[in-house]
Design goal:
It is built from 4 helices and 7 strands, in the order ββααββαβαββ. By secondary structure, the protein is of the alpha+beta class. The chain has a single domain, classed as HU Protein, Chain A (Irregular). The chain starts with a strand and ends in a 30-residue tail after the last strand.
Length: about 170
Amino acid sequence: MLKYVCRPYINPKSAYNGRFYAHPAIEETVDLKALAKHMSGHNSGFGEAVCYGVVQTMVKCIKEMVLDGKNVKIDDLAIFSCGIVNASGGSATVKDFTTARNIRRVKLRARATGELSNTSLNLEASLKKAYYTTSGAIITDPDDQPVTPDGSGGSGGSGGDGNTDDNPLG
């Protein structure tokens, strides 16, 4: 279940200043070792060390191939590619264009695909409103029932309506 918190958008120059929007409440970041441990628990027949080695090698190979100008598609996950961030203003002519002056940096791009596409996530997601405590912990209301992004609820309530008027921590 994906927990979310409501926060105001702060930009005095925007018509949306002060309006509240949902943001995912991320409780932890899982590294490759934790991912490998999780994978090994899915009865795949491979232990944690084997899973870790495979995933670690996959990451290195994706980086190598992307830097070689290739797109790398991992079915049902993402297509990884390299992007270029250009300096603002561009160059008046091709002859005036230089890497040092006109390219700021390269970046990694990842586009969801297959089972991890936005459409698929929307169909499978279950959302529940959460709040950050003053200590930074994430709490949810046990009476608030999870809902899907389209607003259809689980059993016994609509919940997760985005209202923030009942909790000062939200």
